[in-house]
Write a structure and sequence with these properties.
This protein is an alpha/beta fold. The chain contains 18 helices and 22 strands. Strand 1 and strand 2 form a beta hairpin. It starts with a helix and ends in an 11-residue tail after the last strand. Bound molecules: nicotinamide-adenine-dinucleotide. Nicotinamide-adenine-dinucleotide binds next to helix 9 and helix 10.
C-alpha cells in the first residue's frame, strides 16, 4: 500500500467517524432530527463494512419538512436577490473549505475513485456561485408590444420544490438542482439516495453555516417508496426535480398527477459514441475510454455504446482493448485508481449479470467480464469490460448497464450510424468523432439526444441546457432553463387606453 493511500485512508476514517458513531438524521426547519422512523445501515462498497446508521423518514417526517419549506417560502421569495446571492456565495465558500472531506466521504460512500471526486466540492461551489450571480436578475422578464397594449412578463419563485437525487455522483448532482432552486427564491426539500446519503448532510451543514434561514433548505433521508413518494405527493410541493432511473421517472409522473406538479426528469441513457474512419484516432480513443470507464461507468452521460466505422474498426478495437486491459481497478481512495467498486451489491449483481447475457446474446467478451471479488475481497469490484461483435438489438446494447462496460458495434455508412444511434428508447447524450465538418453538422441534427458533443468528451458548460429526450427525461437544467423551471412566468397586459372595449348589454 502506498504512503499516499495509507494517509488518505486515515484521513477518511477521521471524516467518517462521526457517521459511524451517530445515526444520520434529517435536517428539518433548521434542526437535526432522527424523525419518527426506523434506521437502516449504510455500508461502503469498498468492503461492505459499516459506515453508520441512517434514519429512514416516514410520511410524517416528510410532511414536517414540506410544511417547514412552505412556512419559509414567502420570506425567502421576498428576500432580495442580492441578499440571496450573498448567502449562496457564502455557501460556496463553506463547500470549498470542506472540499477534502466531501471528496473522501463521497468516495467511500459510493465507491467513486478519489481522482474524480477531488473536484466535486469545487464544482459544487461553482454551481452555487454561477446561479447566485443570476439571483438579482432572475425575476426580470420580457417587454412585448402590441399597437394598443404593452405586455410585460415577470417571474416569481414557483414555491417549495422537491429535489430527489441518485447515488452515482450524489454531491455534484444535488448542487446542480438545489443551487438554481434557492437562487430562484424557492425553498427546498431534498431527498438524497438511500445508497449514498452522507455528503447530502454535509451540504445541509454548509447551508446552515452560510446562514440560510430556517426551513429554506430541508433534507430527509430514506427510501424512494416511502419518503420519496410522500414528498412527490405533498400538496405544498409545487415542482419535483428528479435525477434517477427512467422507471422512477414514470412512477413520479403518476404520483404527482393528483397534485399536478411541474416535473423535471433527468433519467437514464444508452448513449452512443460514434467514431468515423476520419476521426482523430488518438483523441477519439482517449474519449471513448474516458467516457465509459471514468466514474465507474455509473454516469448518466456515459458513452456505453461505441459505434465504430468499419474502415478503422480492427485497429481501433485493438488499441481500445489494450487500454481497457490496462485500467487500474482499486481502492477508491488510492490516487492511482481509475475504477473503484460499484455502489452497492444489488447494482454489482445487475452489472455482472450482463456478462452472461452478452454471451447468451452472441457477443464476444474482448476484455473483462469478470467479478474481482476473488482477488480483491468482498467489495463490489468488477473488471472493466469490453463487448465486441455486438448487434444493436442485443440487451447489452439496449439496456442501461450503468457500469464500466462498453458495447462495440460496427457500422458502414453515415446513414447506418444515425439509424443505430437512434434505435434506442433513450436520448440523453451522444458523441460524434469525425474530421468532416459537414458530417458533424448532419449528425448533430439527426441524432436524437438532448446533448451532443462533437470531437469532445462530456464538457459541462453551466449556461448550456442539460437534459434528455425520449425515455431519458423531460426538461432542461442550466442557465436560464433552470430559472424557468423553478419560477412561474406571469404576463401583465396594460392597455394604452386607445382601443375599443367590446360592449355588451349597454
Ligand atoms: P433511482 O431512480 O433508483 O433513484 C433516484 C432517487 O429516486 C433516489 O433518491 C430514490 O430514493 C428516489 N426514488 C425511487 N423511487 C421513488 C418514488 N417512487 N418516488 C420518489 N422518489 C423515488 O436511481 P439510482 O439507481 O439512484 O440512479 C441511477 C439512475 O439515475 C440511472 O438510471 C442514471 O442514468 C440516472 N441518472 C440520470 C442523470 C441525468 O442527468 N439524466 C444523471 C445521473 C443519474
Amino acid at each position: 500500500m502506498s504512503a499516499q493511500l495509507q494517509e488518505n485512508i486515515s484521513k477518511a476514517e477521521g471524516y467518517l467517524a462521526r457517521f459511524k458513531e451517530n445515526t444520520l438524521g434529517h435536517y428539518i426547519n433548521g434542526e437535526w432530527t432522527l424523525g419518527s422512523g426506523e434506521t437502516f445501515d449504510n455500508t461502503t462498497p469498498f468492503d461492505q463494512s459499516f459506515l453508520g446508521k441512517v434514519a429512514a423518514a416516514t410520511e410524517a417526517d416528510v410532511n414536517a419538512a414540506c410544511e417547514a419549506a412552505a412556512e419559509a417560502a414567502a420570506g425567502w421569495a421576498a428576500t432580495p436577490g442580492a441578499e440571496r446571492r450573498k448567502i449562496l456565495h457564502r455557501l460556496g465558500d463553506e463547500l470549498e473549505k470542506r472540499a477534502e472531506e466531501i471528496a473522501m466521504v463521497e468516495s467511500m460512500d459510493c465507491g467513486q475513485a478519489l481522482r474524480f471526486m477531488r473536484q466535486a466540492a469545487v464544482r459544487g461551489a461553482a454551481n452555487f456561485r454561477f446561479f447566485a450571480d443570476q439571483a438579482p436578475e432572475a425575476r426580470n422578464g420580457l417587454s412585448l408590444h402590441q399597437a394598443e397594449h404593452t405586455n410585460f412578463t415577470v417571474r416569481s419563485p414557483i414555491g417549495p420544490v422537491a429535489v430527489i437525487t441518485p447515488w452515482n455522483t450524489p454531491f455534484m448532482l444535488s448542487t446542480w438542482k438545489i443551487a438554481p432552486a434557492l437562487a430562484s427564491g424557492c425553498t427546498v426539500v431534498h431527498k438524497p439516495a438511500e445508497l449514498s446519503p452522507l455528503t447530502a448532510s454535509i451540504l445541509a451543514e454548509c447551508a446552515e453555516a452560510a446562514g440560510l434561514p430556517k426551513g429554506v433548505w430541508n433534507m430527509v433521508n430514506g427510501f424512494g417508496t416511502v419518503a420519496g413518494k410522500a414528498l412527490t405527493q405533498h400538496p405544498a410541493i409545487k415542482a419535483v426535480a428528479l435525477v434517477g432511473d427512467s422507471a422512477t421517472g414514470k412512477l413520479i409522473q403518476a404520483q404527482t398527477a393528483q397534485t399536478l406538479k411541474r416535473l423535471h426528469l433527468e433519467l437514464g441513457g444508452k448513449n452512443p459514441i460514434i467514431v468515423f474512419d476520419d476521426a482523430d484516432f488518438d483523441r477519439a480513443l482517449d474519449a471513448v475510454v474516458f467516457m465509459i470507464y471514468s466514474l465507474n461507468g455509473q454516469r448518466c452521460t456515459s458513452s456505453s455504446r461505441l459505434l465504430i466505422q468499419s474502415g478503422i474498426k480492427d485497429k481501433f478495437l485493438a488499441a481500445l482493448k489494450a487500454r481497457v486491459e490496462n485500467i487500474k481497478v482499486g481502492h477508491p481512495l488510492d490516487p492511482e485508481t481509475e475504477v473503484g467498486p460499484l455502489v452497492h451489491t444489488g447494482h454489482y449483481d445487475k452489472v455482472t449479470s450482463y456478462f452472461e447475457i452478452a454471451k447468451q446474446d452472441g457477443a464476444t467478451i474482448a476484455v473483462g467480464g469478470k467479478s474481482l471479488r476473488d482477488e480483491m475481497g468482498p467489495g463490489n469490484f468488477v473488471t472493466p469490460t469490453l463487448f465486441v461483435d455486438a448487434k444493436n438489438s442485443m440487451r447489452i446494447a439496449q439496456e442501461e448497464i450503468f457500469g464500466p462496460v462498453l458495447t462495440a458495434i460496427e457500422f458502414e455508412t453515415e446513414e447506418e450510424a444515425i439509424q443505430l444511434a437512434n434505435e434506442t428508447v433513450y436520448g440523453l447524450a451522444g458523441y460524434i468523432w469525425t474530421s468532416n465538418t459537414g458530417r458533424a453538422m448532419r449528425m448533430a441534427h439527426a441524432v436524437e439526444a438532448g446533448m451532443l458533443w462533437v470531437n469532445s468528451e462530456n464538457n459541462r458548460n453551466l449556461p448550456s441546457p442539460f437534459g434528455g429526450v425520449k425515455m431519458s427525461g423531460i426538461g432542461r437544467d442550466g442557465g436560464d432553463w433552470s430559472f424557468d423551471f423553478y419560477m412561474e412566468t406571469k404576463n401583465v397586459c396594460i392597455a394604452h387606453d386607445t382601443h375599443k372595449v367590446p360592449v355588451l348589454g349597454r
